[in-house]
Amino acid sequence: MFEKILIANRGEIACRVIKTARRMGIKTVAVYSDADKDALHVEMADEAVHIGPPAAADSYLVIDKIIDACKRTGAQAVHPGYGFLSEREAFAEALKANGIVFIGPNPKAIAAMGDKIESKKFANAAKVSTVPGYLGVIEDAAHAVQIADEIGYPVMIKASAGGGGKGMRIAYSRDEVAEGFTRAKSEAKSSFGDDRVFVEKFIVNPRHIEIQVLGDKHGNVIYLGERECSIQRRNQKVIEEAPSPLLDEETRARMGEQAVALAKAVDYDSAGTVEFVAGQDKSFFFLEMNTRLQVEHPVTELITGVDLVEQMIRVAAGEPLALKQSDVHLRGWAVESRIYAEDPTRNFLPSTGRLVKYRPPAEGRHDGVTVRNDTGVYEGGEISIWYDPMIAKLVTHAGDRATAIEAQARALDAFVIDGIRHNIAFLSALMQHPRWKSGALSTGFIAEEFPNGFAPLTAEGEKAHVLAAVAAAIDHVHNERKRLISGQLATQTKVAFERERAVMLGKARYDVQVDDSDGVLMIRMQDASAHAHRLQSTWAPGEPVWRGLVDDEEVAVQVRPILNGFHLSHAGVSVDARVFTRREAELAALMPEKVAADTSKSLLCPMPGLVKAIYVVEGQEVKAGEALAIVEAMKMENVLRAERDVTVKAIRAKEGDSLPVDATIMDFA
Hints:
Blueprint lengths: L3 E4 L3 H13 L3 E6 L7 H5 L2 E4 L12 H11 L3 E3 L9 H9 L3 E2 L4 H8 L1 H10 L7 E2 L6 H11 L3 E5 L8 E4 L2 H19 L4 E5 L5 E9 L5 E13 L2 E7 L6 H17 L5 E8 L5 E7 L6 H8 L3 H9 L16 E8 L1 E2 L5 E2 L2 E2 L2 E3 L4 E3 L2 E7 L6 E2 L6 E9 L2 H13 L2 E3 L5 H9 L1 H5 L6 H5 L11 H26 L13 E6 L2 E10 L2 E6 L6 E6 L7 E6 L2 E10 L2 E6 L2 E8 L1 H7 L13 E3 L4 E6 L6 E2 L4 E7 L2 E6 L4 E6 L6 E2 L4 E5 L1
Parallel strand pairs: 1-2, 1-4, 2-3, 4-5
Antiparallel strand pairs: 6-9, 7-8, 7-9, 10-11, 10-13, 11-12, 12-15, 13-14, 15-23, 16-17, 18-22, 19-24, 20-21, 21-23, 25-26, 25-32, 26-27, 27-28, 28-29, 29-30, 30-31, 31-32, 33-40, 34-36, 34-39, 35-38, 36-37, 38-40
Helix pairs in contact: 4-5, 5-6, 7-8, 12-13
């Protein structure tokens, strides 16, 4: 077994590999760029080596720098994580040439399956059913349009060396193909150092289902069930689960056997994933093979009990698989949510900045439910523009799908992040969505269910009653504390007005009566329902999460102080709450509302990013839909277009500028 390994990656996957290596008694070496000098994976590893400036092309993607770090530290093997160099045949060959073991598949398997174009050709030759497409070299945008016309719309333009949604575009027309081809090539070049793309038919209303395979260097290959990854935005996965609610045992076995056959054909000898696009009728087509560890591997680990990172290390060291196919049993259900630094209310655009607060829910197993949080950040750390916006992967496991979803919803409610925009409210809303709960999924789920983008759920019905009751309870605790601090009301007699309160959730008013008996609060709604909620909690002022029982149900509500109140987040609902006396509520209703500034005559930067291109000049007349600029952030290029016919009055930014969110790029007449 290895004594020391180097992790050629960063963030949560580097931390994930370090944890398993540490448990196995293996020392670890981290590598880091200038942007990651204070990163968590650097702190966790036994040693760390600086490898260059922030841009991945100058640090994490430079093979010679990784090999030099191995030689300087005596690392015997390299785990590549996912992304970066994980699917580069040249990297595996270079390590081999320098006597360093690659903790991944052999170069032949990477060459055959790691390249999406070559994998399609290989699968066709092996008579594996594949999605119709063009696998040759695409010369230019005009050639891409010609191919798309022959295949039929819609089509998918994909980076050959891609992954994680980078270098990928769906096109429904000739114009969209031409632009998508250009953008996909550019993203592929900056993210993977390889600008080749291919075009294939886009299956309408598909599901994304993948099979986890595991092989060794002795000819053994098994599959570890499937994962469903259909909940995506911008072709990047958001929620994954295992197993899939679509598959039955027969379909699962057919997909698994096909994945194993494909892996054996290339002598596959590590952890890998065979991806399929599946129809609602359970038909499926080979999509691609990822010759690496997947981001979503934790859900497979939780339903099988197999540590995939450990298996990869053991296989790389020459050990045969200890598992046979008959030893693989799927137990329970696991759900994973990807916590991203992005703003779902702005079409999921990336967000950067400092993590002022980072308080994930407690990990561990309790009452048959497991909570796991894979992360590479810490409170006070920085989320930069240079890398993927994923902050953490929150995973829950339980005996069945409904319980795992319920546990995921509770864990999300208890996950506190401040300082940057994030997608927790969106994930919480998804956990409440009837279609998600029913398992009626497709890769178009988010676009179909949120056609106008995401806005936090409104407080109404039973959820509003729960939040109003929690708001009243928080206000009650504050009032009790004020009495003790001032000493002016230190009496056994309660102040009469406290019992009659008006809770404002946004603009909605809920009149309540508060009764306190031995730490148990009864909050009676004074409306047509006249419902009384029973609350128990040990919450104290300053805690970011109110945890307690509401009518004997466990509830977690995030609490953030605002002027004259607090902001509450729960189950996808985000609302400002203020608790008044009845007279205060009447007076508050008379206060004028602050009018937001008019920004309709300016193009604002939608997220912190780098200005890659400005397509217009001052005085130019622009038609609605025309491109104005491109802003790049976290390896994604975002084309900013005119929303209506305008004339450019002034350009405030130039190509190469690094802008904060809402910075003015240009003004219109």
